[in-house]
Amino acid sequence: MRLIDGKQIAETIKQEIAGEVQRIKDQEGKVPHLAAILVGEDPASETYVNSKARACKQVGFDSSTYRFPVDVTEAELLEAVEFINNDPEIDGLIVQLPLPGHIDNQKVIQHIVPEKDVDGFHPVNVGRMTIGLPSYVSATPNGIMELIMRSRIETRGKQCVILGRSNIVGKPMSLLMSRNEEPGNATVTVCHSKTQNLGEVTSRADILIVAIGQPEFVTADMVKEGAVVIDVGIHRVPSDKTKSGFRLIGDVRFDEVSEKASYITPVPGGVGPMTIVSLLMNTLKASKKEIYG
Ligand code: NDP
C-alpha cells in the first residue's frame, strides 16, 4: 500500500506557486489577490477563512476578508460582491458558505463575475467544466485530480466508483473522471443514498472516491484488492489519545481498507490540504487571466 501524502503534495504545489508569484511580482509588480466574504461568526467558517488567508500569505498573495454581521441583508451582500467584481486589484472572490437562512446562496454566488469565481461554483464555470471548456473547477475535486495526477495513478479505462453526488464533490468528480483527457477517461459509476447493493458496486472499483459524510462507512469488504481509495470525508470525533480531546477520521475505515488498497489517502493529511491549495491555483490562474483571457 502507498499512502497518498496530500500534505507533502500540497507543500510542493505551494512552493511552485510561490516561485511563480515572485516571477510575476518581479516582472509586473502586482501579486495575485484573493478576497473572501465571511458572514456571521461560525467558528468553522472563521477557521477556514483564516487558514485561506494564512495560505495566501505563505505563497505571497494578497488577501482580504470582508466581514459582515449575521443579520446583513441580501442587498448589502450583493453590493459587496458588485464592489469586489469591479475592483481591478482583486483577482478572485470566495463567499464562505453556508450563508444565513434569509440569504439566497445561489443569488449571491451567481452575482460573482465568472472571471473571479475561483471557487468554481458559478453556473457558468460549472457549465464550462461540463462541456470541457477551460473553467475554474471547485477546490476539492480539483485537488483530488491533482493528487491523482501527481501520484501517477492510471485512470484511463479504469472502473471508477464515486460515493456521493453533491454539487461540490461527487458530481464534479464524476465529470472530471469521465472526461476525455488524462487524468480522466475512466468508466464512472456514481452512488448515492438510493443505490442498491452498494458494497457490490464499490467492490468493482479500481478507483473508489468516497464523499458521503458518514464516518468510517467504507469497510474492507466493500473494497477490491489493489484499489485506489480516495477518502474525502472529514469528521471530528472524541478521543482520549489526543491533547485536544478530538481526532479526525474520514468516510473510510482506514486501518482495514489500507490493508487492501494499492494507494489510499489518509485523514487528516490526504484530500484536506489540497482543497486550499486548489483555491490558490485557481487564484493564480485568475491573476494570469488563463481561463477567460
Ligand atoms: P453531502 O452531504 O452534500 O453529500 C453526501 C452524498 O453522499 C449525497 O449524495 C448522499 O446521497 C450520499 N450519501 C449519504 N449517505 C449515504 C449512504 N449511506 N449511502 C450512499 N450514499 C450516501 O456531502 P459533501 O459532498 O459536501 O461532503 C462529503 C464529505 O466530504 C463530508 O464528510 C465532508 O465533510 C467532506 N468534505 C471534505 C472536504 C475536504 O476538503 N476534505 C471538502 C468538502 C467536503 P443523496 O444525494 O441521495 O442524499
Polypeptide structure, described:
- This protein starts with a strand and ends in a 6-residue tail after the last helix.
- The longest helix has 23 residues, at 6-28.
- It has helices spanning 6-28, 43-59, 74-85, 105-111, 123-130, 139-150, 170-178, 198-202, 254-257, 272-287; strands at 2-3, 33-39, 62-68, 92-95, 159-163, 187-191, 207-210, 228-231, 235-238, 246-249, 263-264.
- The strands form 3 sheets. A 6-stranded parallel sheet has the order 1-11-8-7-5-6.
- The chain has 2 domains: 28-113, Leucine Dehydrogenase, chain A, domain 1 (Rossmann fold, 3-Layer(aba) Sandwich); 139-272, Rossmann fold (3-Layer(aba) Sandwich).
- With 293 residues, it is an alpha/beta fold.
- The mean pLDDT is 97.
- It binds NADPH dihydro-nicotinamide-adenine-dinucleotide phosphate.
- NADPH dihydro-nicotinamide-adenine-dinucleotide phosphate binds next to α10.
